[in-house]
């Protein structure tokens, strides 16, 4: 399958051309592409679950409610991004529960995303975790690696944000992949090449 089978088209990513040999994808910073995807019913992204446990007493105890009073949803998201980014110290972690994240204040991109999504939902902002690839800027081994971030539903559309990088406007280094494609990440042997940058 071509990589386009796993690329999610959204407000930042648009598949320009795809065939069995290659795909050309236009990726922008923020939401600038014409194509955008919406869902009429976002109620499931406000629900509690085992992973995003909105009933956790520990989550309720760290919820920065006073700093969110009187803010617009966009401003709340920016405050929650900043809170999450400063709350967690980066450390590679395997499958931490929400309470473990709150207790240890440590985690990697998945823990940043999990805490942020939980706080956003707790504050009535539909949110979900997404994953894909991100460019690492490593001087010795530059390239793309697996990464998790989040989407929030603002102003009638989904917007990507990155709590691990404290980005309200996700940059063009993020490539969102479908869940099934990302699960089989080991088969990702396609070469990513920058064709044009503006």
How does this structure look, described?
This protein is of the alpha+beta class and 198 residues long. 26% of the residues lie in helices and 22% in strands. The protein has helices spanning 57-62, 65-68, 73-87, 98-104, 109-122, 179-183; strands at 13-18, 23-27, 89-90, 106-107, 127-135, 144-154, 157-161, 174-176. The protein has a four-stranded antiparallel sheet with strand order 7-6-5-8. The protein has a two-stranded antiparallel sheet with strand order 1-2. Strand 6 (144-154) and strand 7 form a beta hairpin. Helix 3 (73-87) runs antiparallel to helix 5. The longest helix has 15 residues, at 73-87. Mean pLDDT is 84; it is low at 185-189.
The H-and-E topology, N to C, reads as EEHHHEHEHEEEEH
From the spread of the alpha carbons, the general shape counts as globular
Helix amount, in percent? Answer: 25-40%
State the strand order across the main sheet: 7-6-5-8
| Secondary structural class | alpha+beta
Sheet having the most strands: 4 strands, antiparallel
Q: Identify low-pLDDT runs.
A: 185-189
Mean pLDDT: 84
Distance between the termini: 29 Å
Find the count of extended strands (DSSP E, 2+ residues).
Answer: 8
> What is the radius of gyration?
17 Å
Helical element count?
6
Strand content: 15-25%
